[in-house]
Amino acid sequence: MYKTYIDIPEGDREKLVGLLNARLADLIDLQTQMKQAHWNVKGPSFIALHELFDDVTDVVREASDSVAERATALGGIARGTARMAAEKSVLSEYPADLSDGMAHCKAVAQALGTAGAHIRKAIAESAEIGDAATEDLFTEIARELDEKLWFVEAHLQAER
Questions:
Q1: Tens-digit pLDDT string for the chain (160 aa)
Q2: Domains of the chain (ranges plus CATH)?
Q3: Cβ atoms within 10 Å, residue 42
Q4: pTM over 0.85
Q5: Of residues 156, 147, 143, 129, the one with CA closest to residue 56
Q6: Which of 4, 19, 84, 111 is disulfide-compatible with 75, CB 3.0–4.6 A?
Q7: d(Cα 56, Cα 37) in Å, to the nearest integer?
């Protein structure tokens, strides 16, 4: 850990950095999965989904940047390479052979739901440690992921 004047004990900062890096891995993985969907979607809703998946990518990219910067602000090191993320991400592997828009929506919804669930756990863990700033960061990310999940699920709910 690097020295900092942040008034959080080093042991707590280490826990927070570990938590931040765990979620950073998920977010980096999620970002690449969203681009996979963006590049490969086909079908009647192509342009709407192509643009939606790119919007989701942008939100996730900003979230991963904020998480990485919080880890370094706390005196830690952001573990943000593709290999580091792949090793630690809790997300399932994105299916490489999808093309149908609704199949992509299902896979994207599952990935967003999983990432969001782990972000919500991180909110509680940050609160237990007593770091309101990290808790707030995760809360904002959860709101953003939930909104994008809603947008994707709206396509799935139209199947009824």
A1: 999 999 999 999 999 999 999 999 999 999 999 999 999 999 999 999 999 999 999 999 999 999 999 999 999 999 999 999 999 999 999 999 999 999 999 999 999 999 999 999 999 999 999 999 999 999 999 999 999 999 999 999 975 5
A2: 10-157 (1.20.1260.10)
A3: 14
A4: yes
A5: 147
A6: 4
A7: 10
